[in-house]
Automatic annotation (TrEMBL):
One Gene Ontology molecular-function label: DNA binding
Family: Belongs to the GreA/GreB family. GreB subfamily.
Keyword terms, alphabetized: DNA-binding, Elongation factor, Protein biosynthesis, Transcription, Transcription regulation
Protein name in the entry: Transcription elongation factor GreB
Source taxonomy: Bacteria, Pseudomonadati, Pseudomonadota, Alphaproteobacteria, Sphingomonadales
Name of the gene: greB
Transcription elongation factor GreA/GreB N-terminal domain boundaries: 8-77
Annotated ranges, domain Transcription elongation factor GreA/GreB C-terminal: 86-159
Keyword Nucleotide-binding: no
Domain of life, per lineage: Bacteria
Record Pfam families: GreA_GreB (PF01272), GreA_GreB_N (PF03449)
Length: 160
């Protein structure tokens, strides 16, 4: 995130974070602790693959749980359907864009944790999303890309 400590997220995105957290904490971690304590009881730990792998995986899970807890604590759930000004681009908007060559692209502005560029879901703090914020149909916006600036025209805006 770029300086913005608030993690804007949709209700579905927050539910996905919560589900992952609950699955790790309530299911995967307790099973792993059981395997580790069983493996520890088998004697020499230096060559015990179950013990060594289990401890490594437990550290990974604990790191992920900490990350998810911080993201959920900083989360501000925003329902895109409740946006007051649907004539402009804000969080949750699905936007149809056209470039100089009239190549069309459709993107949806979602929380950074929900972003999936391959399916057109771009993070709220991505360069394209930052450039589009507040734009209306017909507006031109320039996005700074690694290959140089690219101009996009807003063709349509939809909200769920």
């Amino acid at each position: 995130m770029t300086g913005d400590k608030t993690n804007i997220i949709s209700p579905a995105g927050f539910a996905a974070l919560r589900a992952e957290y609950d699955a790790l904490l309530g299911d995967e971690r307790p099973k792993l602790v059981e395997v580790i304590s069983w493996a520890a009881g088998n004697g020499d730990r230096s060559e015990n693959g179950d013990y060594i792998y289990g401890r490594k995986r437990l550290r990974e899970i604990d790191r992920r749980l900490g990350f998810l807890a911080r993201r959920m604590k900083a989360a501000r759930v925003v329902d895109p359907a409740q946006q007051p000004d649907k004539s402009r681009i804000w969080f949750g908007a699905t936007v149809e864009l056209a470039d100089d060559d009239d190549a069309r692209r459709t993107v949806t502005l979602v929380g950074d944790d929900e972003a999936e560029a391959g399916s057109g879901r771009i993070g709220w703090n991505s360069p394209l999303a930052r450039a589009l914020r507040g734009a209306a149909v017909g507006d031109l916006r320039t996005v700074q890309l690694p290959a140089g600036p690219k101009l996009w025209e807003v063709i349509a805006i939809r909200y769920p």
